[in-house]
Amino acid sequence: MPGRILVVDDIPSSRLVVRARLSMAYYDVIEAASGEDALELARKEQPDLILLDIMMPGMDGYETCRQLKNDPKTAHIPVVVLSGLSSREERVLGFEAGADDYLNKPFEDSALLARISGLTRMKMMIDELRLRAETSRELGLEPFAPAGALGAFPDASVLIVSSDEEFGAAAARALRERIHCGVAHARGEAEAKALIRSNDFDAFVIGTELSDGEPMRMASALRGRPDTRQAALMMVFQAEDVAGPALALDMGVPDYLQGPPDLCEMAARLRVQLRRKHYSDQLRDSLQASVVQAVTDPLTGLYNRRYANAHLEQMIQKPRAPQRRLAAMILDLDRFKSVNDGHGHSAGDAVLVEFAERLRRVVRPTDLISRVGGEEFLVVMPDILPEHAETVAERVRHSVESPPFQAGEATLDLTVSIGLALMLEGETSVSLIERADRALYASKAAGRNTVTLAAA
């Protein structure tokens, strides 16, 4: 998942070291030697992440970060401070200026790459929300949510999960004083689950010990639940634990501290996550309100042809990582007319609703799914490896073939034909869809229940 990273440092040799390390991980690196240059490049190049030094002549890193986060064009870009200033006060200042993370020099390559990977993964999700919001705005549905929302968030509720009473009490005091949020404390996994069932928490802090259960399993469960996966999440590890933090970042935990944790820094880091969550929540709420009725299919809840055409144009313009492509699948349920004729239109509607749900389960959250005709559907997969696109198409085909569909009292064995096209250099959306459509007809001609890859 490499992307483009802006490295900001006034010392050429420092930039060279960071560039070399990032290039080995296949990141595209651009450089700025001052805060002023960084602001200009960030607006123009829209990098996926910014690595920012603090001590620079003229505009220092703190002011650069503040201006980046106050500019609607750059506020959504994650900023990681790389600095030799390692005191608690300096780190807290960095987070208060808007930094998403703070690493001390000299840093370990693995720690830097793990942090970058986690933050760019989150930015990809926010970028997709922003892109969809922009599509809605261009359709005249809803003004785009302002990036300035990153600067504030309403009162939040935080659940601390730890059997360490002293840590729980101290952490609760720090969060109430510095974030002015509501705080609850669970001693173990069972108690936490009971609180989650009756409360809507914005953030979770998981300590090193639980009275029952295991901290990493608890974090995994929170990331796996639909109602908690968007929440802010921080884990605390023992100082000597080397493997835990890397595993946590790899499975999607946004941030961690190693003990004994600095509670002021913990509050500052959690505030950053809450700002980001509030911003993404605003985007989701704006989309939910504006798009649901205007650009969705009322039967399946998927996007309709109008939205798909407009959003596909936006997706085509978005830059992609090396070796990755944009892919489009056109899907048509085989012999669907016989379902309506033999079992009635209510059974046909039930099949379409179930088919839409199966599609949602097997494609990625960032993929666009739409119903473009009666039993015809479109899936657009941005930034995907060609071999993965074919794997997804086959996975969709298998998900339709088995298990059978249930439509009222009828049990129906159905299949789907799929045409898959990988976008060519300079190709238009019209040409891409036409090639996918021709591939679909080839699948039908080959006997149905087949995936056909369009010729270049």
Q: What's a concise summary of this model?
A:
With 456 residues, the protein is of the alpha/beta class. The protein has helices spanning 12-24, 35-45, 61-70, 88-96, 109-138, 165-179, 189-198, 215-224, 243-250, 263-294, 305-317, 336-343, 345-362, 386-401, 429-445, and strands spanning 4-8, 28-32, 49-52, 79-83, 101-104, 157-161, 182-186, 203-206, 232-237, 255-258, 303-304, 325-333, 368-371, 376-384, 405-407, 410-412, 416-422, 451-453.
Description:
The protein is an alpha/beta fold and 456 residues long. Helix content is 48%, strand content 19%. It is built from 15 helices and 18 strands. The strands form four sheets. Strands 11-13-14-12-17-18 form a six-stranded mixed β-sheet, sandwiched between helices. Strands 2-1-3-4-5 form a five-stranded parallel β-sheet, sandwiched between helices. Strand 1, helix 1 and strand 2 form a beta-alpha-beta unit. Helix 5 runs parallel beside helix 10. The longest helix has 32 residues. The two termini are 25 Å apart. About 2% of the residues have low confidence.
